[in-house]
Specification:
The protein has 624 residues and is an all-alpha fold. It has two domains: 221 residues, no CATH class; 276 residues, no CATH class. Helices cover 53% and strands 2% of the residues. The strands form two sheets. Strands 1-2 form a two-stranded antiparallel ribbon. It has a two-stranded antiparallel sheet with strand order 3-4. β1 and β2 form a beta hairpin. It is globular, with a radius of gyration of 27 Å. The protein starts with 11 loop residues before the first helix and ends with a helix.
Amino acid sequence: MDSQCNREYPCNHCTRRRRPEECVFSSEPTRNPSHNALHPEKSLNETKGQIQGPVPARLPIETPALDGPNEHWSSQHSALAKSFGYFEDKFPGGTKTALRDSSPASTWETIHYEFSRMPERRILDFLVQYFVCELNWMKQIVHAPRFLTHYHEWWENSKPSLVADVEFATLILRVCSYATQFLPSPLHAIDQICGHPLSDIRNTCSSIGDNLVKLCETLDWKGSLFRVQHLIFAALQISCEGRTDQFWEGIASASRAAQKAGIHTDTTLFEESLVPQNDTSKELDKEARRRTFCSLYVLDSHLSRQLDRVPFLPDHLIAGSLPRMHFVSETGSTSTEIPAGAPDIFTERLMQVQLGHFWRQFGSRHNCDYDPTAGEQRYDKFYAEYLPSLHPAFAFDRTDTTWDNALTKLPMQRQLLHIAIFDSVCWNFRPVLLLKPDYVARLPPYKRVLLQSQKRRLGLVALKELEAVTSLHLMFGGSSTRFAAIIFNTFEAAVLLLCLCTHVDFPFDQADENMDALGIHAKLTYKKAIQASEQAISRLQMLAELSDMAASGAQVAAQLFAKIAKWKQSSSPVPLADYIDTSFWQLPYSANIGVYDDLGPFPSLEQAYPGFMSEIFSSAAQKP
């Protein structure tokens, strides 16, 4: 007779079948809290003095022996590597780092104490399950089935004594803290889990995670895949909190850790695995490393392009780190039969890798003058080389939606990729908005015509980007979210459209044929641009309830909108109500819209206020 389900996530049955991602058991997140669900928030310094020997904990840790035969060599090897910068993967065959640490017992007692502070398992199970089913599709830092296998084994291990145990505990905490950023949600509408406020759970996980990170670095200077992953999740949480500068620093730390641990090389042994290693397990671990590295490469490429910085990861590393296995679904899809030819769950990330690799070849444009001809050549190359390489399920023209019902996250991945593509094209043409009139006047006539064409293409692509963001937001339920892709791209695309509205020579409402951008034919009118911008500002104002990034973006965009409204009202015979929904002025932040009322009427924002664009973006950058 089969044993009963152990009512944990993932359960014993699904784990034994090697299908942990298909587990549907869900703990009851709304039950009353138990006394020890969350331990009191005492600082480590306050409690340390009360420790007399090992502290009783939920997971007893075996303090490693200090007199093994290889400990002396391991200590010398570590000191040599730190002093001279030698990495194990520099030498053929490498050398093995002892994972059983020879640190003093006090270090392990401290780890013991931090483990005892972790939220109880039913809270962590709920957050891990929510992450795997609802969030992992976005960045895919971890391979869900492998992550759940390690998660199950971590709880089963009664005497964890490897550095990997500490690293993986940190990863669990970072994943759970990140998951709380997306709650409440339509699937979980309350701000509690098991009676505990989400904010308390988030703070507890973050606090313990911060402490364990320092201990991990003390135990093992080299690091592992788990370290790379928990550093990325820490950076993603910072992104959700709207601190892009610190997000950049977080990606820098993860990139250094990835190269230090050598996760981009097949020669690196994945010795930190928590499960028994056979040939299949080793190949799965190698695949997990490749996918994590690709996801990190995407984040590095995207953020460096947005900030006009040099990427941390060199291009040549990605060639040998591309995935080699095909997994149709890793999110527990209930469909038993996936149609033939369905895209891998990682296909969208691969398309993002190619997108980042394409734009990297042109380097950073920081402090470089914009050349309309070069901008057009980049666009033509992108249109001819990148767009045809898209998988049919992600194509712009005649998108294949065959697998949408079976792969429930595929439509959301499609919108996420399209947003990234639109954003990259906007990045290519964005400098046309910053050109000085005297510079434009010196250009040959054919380049001035080209600039007008590029402005129209920029406007159309920004409009399509807002449409894609709207679609993605609706797939999230249209509710409040901290997802940076929705907030950031809403703000940037709206500002681009509004800035185009300030250009008195922009060819709005012309009766000629539709404009072509990325194979999309449409006509951009002033009314479409202003209405799309208004809707974007309304979305930012709604999201401002949870996000500081959305709040600062909404305020700056609303100020810009007010400038345009005042200018249009004073210089156009068309009634303002034809363009603007008057209910907009009753939305939050409307009190801030009148800050420029003393400027008076002016024929063109572009000419009357030369520092207009710089002030708008610097104002956004200075917001918290």
